[in-house]
Amino acid sequence: MKKNIFIKYLLVAGIASVALFSGCRKETAADKVGGQAADNGKTLIGFPNGMINATFFEPFTNVKTVNVFTLKKDAKSEAELNKAQTFVLTSLPDALTKYNAKNGSSYELLPQSFYTLGNANTTQATNGDLTFKFASGTFAEDFIIKLNGSKLDLSKTYGLAYKLTGTDGLGVHAASKDTLYAFFSVKNKWDGVYEITGTMTDKANATLGHINEYLSSATNTSDPKGPMQFELRTISATKCEVYDNYLFGGNYMPIRSGTGASYYGNFALIIEFDPATNKVAAVTNYYGQPASNTRSAALDPSGANAYDPGTKTIDIIYNMLQPSVITTAPYIRATWTEKWKYIGSR
Questions:
Q1: Owning domain of residue 38
Q2: Do 295 and 319 have their domain in common?
Q3: What is the DSSP string of 170-194?
Q4: Which CATH number goes with the domain that contains 89?
Q5: pLDDT tens for each residue of 156-170
Q6: The pTM of the whole model exceeds 0.85
Q7: Which residues contact 296 (CB under 8 A, 6 or more apart)?
Q8: Are the CB atoms for 273 and 226 separated by under 8 Å?
């Protein structure tokens, strides 16, 4: 169970099925006009899968065919459907910069040299603009690319941004008038959703404990019942950030506080793996090592601190150091002893 938070939708908003041979579709009885087009008697054009389309890949070095998004014409009549029409999407590289500033992300423009087009009815100008040609009877065309995985950098996330500017006289669905985004990233082999079990202690505050103690308690009447889940999100070929997409929604390490749930401010993990041994090489604090409140992260050497590719589990013991509270070396305030079990991709 996940909270309804934005990133959840980012992950699933517009991933469509891959079309290997053709990006156009003829209308069937099930696709006949409905919704906004039927209500106002106009033929409309738009993006049926939403304005944010995110695709995540396992590492690959070959060429993959990717259905990035769909452009669909809702025709008010069969005569309108049978009109051959051309539509233009203007590339907006600057929109990615604005998106990054607003959302704290770091998407880079996906270079055209990384892919070729996979739909003969779509062409691309050197400036990135797209032209879609709808033949008579066609109600949808897919933007399909053949992406060369050998050119992708695992430490980067890529994006494309467009606005529907050439409508051939048609109206645009209200939900399709803003900027359309497509995002791409490659996951390292540790990326995914993990179920968390274990214990946690805090030397400075005995009322704090492991988050599962709250999730499984009778006082929890509104949150997921646990065990806790974390997402490991690729940030490089060997590193993942730990993200809570289960309880609070953000880069947090939730804990039990009394009979409720809380988390340590300015503390979350970045985990680095040794790809040769699958050992956990290091953990650092996502908010700075140390953060402004002196909190930092460190592996506890008493732990196995390793990923087992056979069982897809991580055994780890890690500490939160806070010398402003624990004033004697090694400044360990809190310790987690945990097993993380892979339960699926994010």
A1: 6-186
A2: yes
A3: -EE-GGGSS-EEEEEEE--TT-EEE
A4: 2.60.40.1740
A5: 899 999 999 999 999
A6: no
A7: 284, 285, 288, 289, 290, 320, 321, 322
A8: no
